[in-house]
Every structure is written in structure tokens, then in C-alpha cells.
Amino acid sequence: MVFSSLSFLFFFLPLVCCLYFPISNLKWRNLVLFTASIIFYAWEEPIYVLVILATMLVAYLFGLLIEIYKEMHSKLALFYFILSIFTCIFFLFYFKYQRFIFSNLNLILPFQIPIKELILPVGISFYTFQVLSYLIDVYQGKVQAQHNFIRLGTYIALFPQLVAGPIVRYETIEQELRERHSSIADIANGLRRFILGLGKKVILSNNMAVLADFVFNQAPSASGTVLIWLGAVAYTFQIYFDFSGYSDMAIGLGQMFGFHFLENFRYPLIAKSITDFWRRWHISLSSWFRDYIYIPLGGNRCSKLKWIRNILIVWLLTGLWHGANWNYILWGLYFGLWLMLEKLFLLKLTEKLPSILRWLFTLFVIIVSWVIFRVEDMQALLGFLHRMFVYAPADLSRIAYEQPDAVYVLCYMPLAFLASLPAFNKLYRRYFAKSQRLAGVIADLMFVIILFICIIMLMSNSYNPFIYYRF
């Protein structure tokens, strides 16, 4: 089940609200959310509920054991900590990486390692990282182990952010698992945020996907330079509105139920450097790697050689986190290289340029990165990149008869560009958000119109999963 589906909008969410809000006892409210989250996860892949339940059990039992033996100053605390981390990573490796690693090893080994063909459990990378951060924080004494299984299970499986983030730290909602309130204002603001995210996904991202799929689902030789660049721009908008739209919906739903998640996007397409881009894009993931990998390795407070090692490790892992394929590794190292260059000399060099040129250069680097991210076949990827930088003519008019809907996407691009800027949000906050008069009524009417358009479009379209569901 996805948020941008009629079954979620008209069945699941209303049913959960009807069960949740009449109850005042927080213990029962948590149970409703826990049960709803398990049903939400089991909607399409019932068998993999066992995986997330096993992960919850690991987090619960080992969290308690780590805390108990830490208080006793016993070395067993370290043993249970390492064992818990290993167990969680094993689950992730078995379902997500064993096929990729073993198939590549089989190319060079004199014998063949058996490979299991498994369907990737939805959201396993997200909830595994949440559990890892919880266990690390318990071991380091930053948080206390949760003694209530339902509370911990609610944190791990909370359906608003279960399958595509943001990656929520336990400390962020620890208090809200024990005590929270949903005011009318919280529910209203959360609903508005949800509708905004739904609009990003259905109206913008899904339409951008038409052109992006038309370009990248064909062989590179079928498209010329101009068309590939148009497809790359379309995919840049598609993945931004897809993922930030999901984050908006997750944050909005969380607010409706009394949780306050941290922001996951801050208008990354206005960044004027790659460093700035990663302060704005998928903030929960980049901060996770910063706090749990980069800084423990020594961060930038070490020799230049070790710093380069740290950057390469973090961005290799960042690429692998996204997917078990060579293009994701290349994508991660691509960003790692740009970040190293910026730190070494590029930022000082480009700061002398006009602001608009720095923005255009950064956007250029970002657009190229999404081509690497989008095309999993390495031969096809090289073909697309070659045609992007070595001019190849093509008949653009064929789009009109091969994929007429892709032509309309070009009309959406100016709207997508404007929606990627903070201007609309600033306008809304200044004139509409705090107003109780006519401006407030107009703003709410706009949200109703967005919701209506989304429903009409969902009724006429097929299944449209989020890109980050497969991670």
C-alpha cells in the first residue's frame, strides 16, 4: 500500500483515524498505531512482516541486555552490542546484498556460491538504520532502552515513515511515545502537509516520470543529446518531488498523530555547492552517516589521507545503502569525489563566481548524478553519458507519436521548477498560514483543489509506487 493510492486515502487512513482519535489512553493509542503499521506493511508482502518483527525483537531484547550489562560495567555489554549490530546487518545483507555480492564473486571464483532469489522487503534499509541508531545510542548511553515492546515496535514500524523515511532517531520521538497530544491545529496542519506531499507526488512527480521513463527505458542510441538531457532534467524533478513528497506526507501524518519528525529536505535544488546540496537532500540519511560512520572514523580532524579514506568509506556505503548494484556504488563515489574536490580547492575557486553560475554548475553536477542513479545497466549508462557530452542528433518530433503524454511534461517543467523553489512556501507562511480571515480560507480552498486533482488523477492512473520504496 502506498500513500498515493485510493485504498490508503479512502479506507486505511480514515479507519485508523476512527480507531485512534476517540481513544484518550496513550497505551491503547500506541497499540492502534502499532497494529495499523503491521497491517500497512503486510498489505502487499505478508511474509516479510516476520522480518520486521524479528528486527523489533532483536532491538528490544538486545537493547535491554546492553543497558543491564552497561550498568554492571560488564564487558558483556560490548559483546551483546556487537552481536545485535551484526544480526541487524545480517538481515539487511541476506535480503538486499547477498545476490549482488555472490554473483560478482562467482565471476572470479573457481567454484560457484549458491544464490537465493529473494524479493527485497519494502523499507528494510530505512527501518534497519533506525534500529542500528537505537542500539548504538543505547550502548553509548544517549538514550535509555525501551522496556515496553509496543512502544519500541511503534517507533520502528510507525507507518507514516516506515517504508521510505525519513530515518527517525529514537531520541527524536522518545518522549512522544510516552506522552503526546494532537490538537485541532496539529491535525489541520498535518493534513495540509500531507496534501502538499500528495500533490508533489501525483501532479508533479508522476508526470515527470512519463518523459524520464520514455528516455531511459530505451537504448541510448534511440535518443539524441537534447532528448537525454530533457529526460535527465525530468528525472531530477521526478525523484525530488517523489521523495520530498513522501517526506511531506510522512511528516504530515506524524503531526496528525502527535509526532514531530525532523525535516528531510530543504529545497536542495537551490544549492550552490554539492556540500550545500547534501545539507538539504535526504537530511536524515546524510546526518546518520555523519554521526554514526564519518565522525567515529575521525571525520575531518585527522590527516588528509585518513580524511580521504573516511569520505570514500562513507560515500561507498551511501551508494550501497541505496541499492545493490554497481551504478549505486558509482553514484556514491561520484558525490564523494565532488565533495573532496570542494573541500580541497573547488569551493574557494567557485566562490569568486556569480551566485547564479555557482547554482547552475551545482545543478549540472546533480542532474548528471541522477542519470548514474537511474540507469542500472552499466553499458547503457556509459552510452547515455557519452551521448550527453558528445552531441548526437535525434528526431524530437517522434515523442509526439510514440509517447504523446511526454510532450505535456514539457509544459509541467516550469511549474516543477517554481515548485522546487522556496518562494511558494515563503508566500504561504507570510500571507496564509497564520491568517484566520479570507487569506486562510483561500489557502484551505487551494489544498482542497489539490486533493481533488490528485484523486481524479489517481482514479485514471495505475499503481504508482515511490522510487525510494525499493530501498
TrEMBL record:
It is found in: Cell membrane. It is a multi-pass membrane protein. The keyword Membrane applies. GO terms for biological process: alginic acid biosynthetic process. GO terms for cellular component: plasma membrane. GO terms for molecular function: acyltransferase activity. This is MBOAT family protein. It comes from Dielma fastidiosa.
